[in-house]
Amino acid sequence: MMIKRRIRSLADQISVLALLATAALPLPSVSAWGSSGNSDFDSSIYGMSKQRDWMSESTSISLKFEGCVWGYVNDRENMGCMDDESGDGTTYWYMMANCRRAQAAYSMYATSSGSTSCNKRDFKESFVTKDGVSEFVYNIGTYGYSPPVTADDVDSLPICEYDGSQYYYGTGCSSSGQFTIDLFSDAYCTQFYQTADYLSNFNSAMKSLNKCYNTYSSKTDEDPSYSLASILVSESGHCSQAESSLCKSNDFVQNSGSYSSSSGQRAAARFTSGSGSFTNNLKYGLGFAMMLGTLIMFVGILFTNRKKRRAMMHRKFRHSGGESTSGRSKARSKSKSKSKSSRKLKKKKDASRGQSSPREGSGGGIFA
Predict the structure, then answer these.
(1) Domain co-membership, 201 together with 253
(2) For the whole prediction, is pTM greater than 0.90?
(3) I want to staple 128 with a disulfide (CB 3.0 to 4.6 A). Which of 99, 156, 239, 316 is the partner?
């Protein structure tokens, strides 16, 4: 008992020392929610959205504006999604987490030879802004070539402001992808009430971006990483069709990352897809042939067993019928022999009776 107690006390001491050593180790730095102090964070570990080799390999990159999308924001505080009067910034956290604003959806087209015309062959990826349409227009007006829209066109667009009565108003999106001024019933502009203005002038100016607006050209820009295309993409996120019908399908993701417009990579992609489809067709064909062969074998075995059973039944019937006829013939022969013997006995008896009657009459008589 004393040895067991000593062992337990020693184990307890070891565990306490381990806890103290763990507490003495430096803890990793953890940034608070919404903090941007961690500049070394690599977001490419979450997917392939940062592996866009086509940007560095292209000689021409153009943009095509798709429309307005009611999307999430990066900076909730600047977008009016956080309560500035709360001490810890957690008031109505569910509204802050679901903060959305009017965003611009656009698609990028690039080519490695000549200039792109925004056709399906040169399509790369669809994007949606994260800082609102005002920041999108500001970047185009500052870094674009002969920009059709500038910061003056979005200076009067509200983010989320009080109208002085009972509603809040901000920039919104219509069902057709147009920018609007909408009224909201909450202070964070998340509960839509009704549309106040359809912004016809601003939407007309944005339509000029639907005609394949150039954002990079190797003839004028030295490096695509410092072009308007790189600035817009770095401040945007991937736009999928599940998020909005304005977003196009993504050839970048379908081709597993570094998709290039060169003919060699396209031929390799076609060969890969063709070989994959041929392999799948071969697998399906073999599987169907095996299933068909199994069915044929099952049906053959079923009919073979049925014939065997019928033949066995016929044999049994014949065997039982032969035994019954032989028994009947034997019984008939026995009855015939018995009848013959009985007839012979009757004849003998009759004959013996006829011979004995005259002897009795001759031997005796009555005399007077």
Answers:
(1) yes
(2) no
(3) 239
